[in-house]
User: Fold Type-4 uracil-DNA glycosylase from Roseibium sediminicola.
Amino acid sequence: MQQVPNDPRQIEALLDFYTSAGVDCFLGEDAVDWFELTRRQAEQRAQSRPQAPAAGPTHTHASGPGRGSGPNHPMPAAAAPQARVPDAGQTAVLPDAQVIAAARDQAASAASLEDLQACLAAFDGCNLKLTAKKLVFADGNPQARLMFVGEAPGRDEDLHGKPFVGRSGQLLDRMLEAIGLDRSSAYIANVVPWRPPGNRTPTPQETEICKPFIVRQIELVNPDVLVFLGAASAKTLLGVQDGIRKMRGRWMSYPGKGKEIAAIATYHPAYLLRSPLEKRLSWRDFLSIQDKLTGGSATRER
Assistant:
């Protein structure tokens, strides 16, 4: 077993490493079979649920509007309202073409950002929703000319329900401040609005299911400048395959609502926390973003 360091600075660095890696709970020394535990919990819940009344003479002779509302005719279990919060016994959804098509239809039906957020809150096609605590929809000003898109929320974002509120978000705030902006001057979202367990990378299926919602979100915001934080969001929305080192700092075009949106990719703030020497390149990117914003029209047409 690894020996715990005595130096408080080493302990702080170790805890910071675990937090960045997505560890958000303490574990014991003995392994736990979570599959078996989940199965037993599901069985216990099934046994504790009230059984639906068996079909028989008690119900076959009842008729009229009062049926099922009296003491002798309790409401069938299938008609009872179900809890919105998923539990360990809830069946996961198979991420197939039908689920992706349903996501496209629901996203396209949203006429406003409020409608889109409601659609996401009610959407059960992405299994990340089963493990996430909150929906992380967006933050900032939806009327801003500048929009940032990351890949997926982390632990702090999952707890607060807002994107980029942890250490990465604090760095992003400082980077915005360096070019004279703040969150009231930008709109911030992620491709995937639910935190993957342990901060793992979203699977291609999870990203594809969530993609119609971020595409619609960009359409509704209709920014003048779109910034991809990291290569993952740029690859998803632009269809490019270049790595972030080759892609960053290069202006591209994103098809917006009735116009071409100026788009650029830069390093994700989480990467800059691990590689502070790369901040100089991100600084160049943000100066380029500032030039693009100030070189455009002062009044925005929507």
User: Anything to note?
Assistant: The chain has a mean pLDDT of 82. The chain is about 40% helix and 10% strand. The domain at 97-294 is CATH 3.40.470.10 (Uracil-DNA Glycosylase, subunit E).
